């Protein structure tokens, strides 16, 4: 059996089997995740109807590291679909600054995304929300049935959605877990009309196979070239994918390749200075014609620079892009199907995953465990969670000052 065009025996020798298998398995995994959400539909629908009936409710989308970027992708979609004030705040920010996000008198739905459910910050964010907010609700989307977050599902204010077994990645880099939880989050915003999304999920699964079958070899060749930096650009929900793409290449290469992300418009305001002859730029293009105008302008501006980098464009439909003079065009459909940008996010991260995988091998690393020093681990280690203390005052209680310090080893 092959994964990403590599024989399993070779992948095992190179410490790359899990990463290759998990990247390759995503399109099928998305369809399994859809069926899992169909199973959960009655439970989630009833839970959210109760929660969203609460006046003045706020929604916080959270996670640590890659899981936090799911919230960045979904923030607009959640707010649009629910009509509730929605923010994406990482658990790493919630834990260090809880009073800036949790208020005693503000009802809150905390939506937690977590591969393992054992990240110290994810568990601490749950505990802080419980301690501070009078009316707190939790929706937990996780890949590990044995994780700490999965075990709190029996609480009446909590619903836990467990992803398919194969979403619980064995490799260090989150790939299938990220896209599976992301899709589950998108489908949560459509929970009362899931049947209408079946064809869309099937389509993005087909798009994923187009990328895997049609562009893996080209991305492998690109990974063997002598670049030192990669910039990922995206607009709206695709900016969150640019952020995850940046992290994926950087962690798979153990920091040897420095990456940056931004929006198309934001990149003009100073960050363009990072471009030199050793830079790759990945453009994650929007399907919205209005947004696309701004993106095209940025591409043309960069092309006018004498330091022209190697440019890759990721599109749903790439008709009439000759004017952009891209070095590699990754178009997934010959037709203008126009799935929404938020659904397109699920498959648009695959090129970065594949590039990072092959660059890791090119650098002599082991993609399943690319960190030579061990400083990056599958579940973060060595984080001390301190008792939360805040000066007394209106709406700012002192919490558990004498509680024992938790040390996660």
Automatic annotation (TrEMBL):
This is SIS domain-containing protein. It comes from Agaribacillus aureus. Keywords: Repeat. The keyword Repeat applies. It comes from the Bacteria. InterPro entries: GatZ_KbaZ_carbometab, GlmS/AgaS_SIS, SIS_dom, SIS_dom_sf. Coiled coil: none annotated. Residues 44-200 form the SIS domain.
């Amino acid at each position: 059996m092959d994964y990403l065009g590599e024989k399993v025996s070779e992948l095992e020798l190179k410490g790359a089997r899990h990463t290759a298998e998990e990247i390759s398995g995503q399109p099928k995994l998305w369809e399994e995740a859809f069926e899992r959400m169909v199973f959960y539909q009655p439970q989630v629908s009833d839970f959210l109807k109760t929660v969203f009936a609460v006046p003045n409710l706020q929604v916080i989308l959270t996670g640590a590291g890659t899981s936090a970027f799911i919230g960045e992708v979904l923030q607009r979609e959640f707010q649009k679909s629910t009509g509730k004030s929605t923010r994406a705040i990482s658990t790493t920010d919630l834990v260090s600054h809880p009073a800036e996000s949790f208020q005693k008198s503000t009802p809150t739905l905390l939506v937690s995304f977590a591969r393992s459910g054992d990240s110290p910050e994810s568990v601490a964010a749950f505990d802080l929300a419980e301690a501070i907010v009078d009316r707190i609700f939790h929706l937990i989307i996780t890949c590990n049935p044995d994780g700490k977050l999965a075990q709190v599902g029996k609480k009446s204010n909590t619903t836990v959605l467990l992803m398919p077994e194969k979403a619980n990645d064995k490799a260090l880099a989150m790939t299938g877990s990220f896209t599976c939880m992301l899709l589950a989050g998108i489908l949560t915003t459509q929970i009362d009309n899931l049947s209408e999304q079946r064809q869309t999920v099937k389509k993005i699964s087909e798009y994923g196979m187009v990328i895997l079958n049609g562009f893996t070899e080209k991305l492998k060749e690109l990974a063997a070239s002598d670049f030192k930096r990669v910039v990922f650009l995206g607009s709206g929900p695709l900016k969150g994918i640019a952020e995850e793409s940046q992290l994926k290449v950087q962690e798979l290469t153990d920091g040897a390749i420095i990456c940056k992300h931004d929006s198309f418009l934001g990149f003009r305001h100073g960050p363009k200075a990072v471009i030199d002859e050793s830079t790759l730029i990945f453009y994650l293009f929007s399907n919205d014609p209005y947004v696309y105008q701004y993106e095209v302008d940025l591409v043309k501006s960069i092309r006018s620079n004498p330091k022209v980098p190697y440019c890759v464009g990721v599109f749903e439909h790439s008709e009439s892009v000759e004017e952009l003079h891209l070095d590699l065009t990754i178009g997934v459909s010959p037709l203008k199907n126009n799935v929404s940008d938020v659904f397109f996010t699920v498959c648009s991260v695959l090129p970065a995953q594949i590039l990072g995988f092959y660059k890791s091998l090119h650098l002599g690393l082991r993609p399943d465990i690319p960190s030579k020093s061990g400083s990056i681990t599958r579940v973060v280690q060595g984080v001390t969670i301190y008792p939360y203390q805040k000066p007394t005052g209106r709406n700012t209680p002192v919490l558990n000052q004498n509680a024992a310090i938790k040390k996660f080893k």
